[in-house]
Amino acid sequence: MMLILYVDMDYFFAACEEARHPELKGKPLIVGTGSEKDKLRGVVQAANYDARKFGIHSAMPTMDAFKLCKELQYSPPDDAYYEEVSKRIMELLSGYAKRMEVDSIDEAALEIEAGGYAEALEEGRKIKERIKRDLGLPCTVGISTGKVIAKMVCDSAKPDGMEAVEANGIKDFLKGKDVESIPGVGKKTAEKLAALKVRKIGDLAKIDPMVLIDALGSFGRELFLIANGTDESTVEENAGVISISRERTLERNAKSVADIEATLNLLADEVITEVKRQKLMFKSIGVKARYFDFTDRLKSRSLNSYTDSKETVVTTAMSLFRGLFGEKPVRKIGVRVSSLISVKGQRNLF
Ligand code: TTP
Ligand code: MG
Ligand code: MG
Fold first, then answer.
1. Annotated active-site residue in 17, 101, 107, 222
2. Whole-angstrom Cα distance, residue 142 to residue 138?
3. Does domain 170-240 have CATH number 3.60.20.10?
4. Topology of domain 12-78, CATH
5. Known catalytic membership, residue 119
């Protein structure tokens, strides 16, 4: 059966700081928007769970956080570092998924084919262990039939947790929760629902669906179905840009891969620079050879996981090019990466 495994990192930015500064562990810690000097003028971006015990949370003014906890530890933000860690996480996760959707800097939905829930839980356990071992970071895994419910299961199993909710348990799992806990339901939707006397998801399940559709359009229909245990949301691989490629005519026609090594290195550099600039990763590499008679041949290969490594481009392209060199000299070569995903810090893409 096809199941969705939703992974969200726990107190992500703050956990990244703990991972590289172990002395910060075990005490309340926040990452704020301001530098050390200006910290009181900023807001909280992430709070570890020791800090949350004091009522501290994301988006709160840092000044208020210090009022709630005098011995609070502070770290200024380092976006480049969190993006780098995020890439490593997504790279690792993609190796476990048939299809994967990156939903923000610290979360992704993985579609997996499993014999049943026990097998999916085993897969989740392995993922948690790998992320802990390789990156020193805690995460939480939610498992269910659709993406929206899997995310909600993940939210409710935090921190460092894992939970699965089977199809016949979804309605019960949801009924006591506030409508705002459904991803995509913000203040405005919640107000419209409150006007219909709908505050809990259990109320949503019982209301006349036509009234909901009147108030909210097709989103109303989705909400009604979700409240009744049917989650039609699926994993959408983040497409955007389809591929990035570079090509160059060689100074002299090439007869073997040894003749193109330098040019290939250059092309790989250019492709990777663009990949990084757009904050992408790829899972497929292709090459093109144009022969002296202007005929073209292409070859490509899928990788086991997403990456943005130049090494991988060069070694994979070299091995692909080997199959393209024969009698005919080559006058132009190209390198292309595709199956791209975005690792930007975008949020709530449902
Ligand atoms: P979240 O996954 O929403 O939160 P979290 O990882 O800090 O905590 P948890 O998942 O355990 O509840 O957000 C991921 C990161 O995004 C977070 O560490 C910091 C950043 N972020 C902000 O910068 N501002 C915000 O308002 C929120 C909510 C998050
Ligand atoms: Mg998180
Ligand atoms: Mg998140």
1. 107
2. 14
3. no
4. MutS, DNA mismatch repair protein, domain I (3.40.1170)
5. no
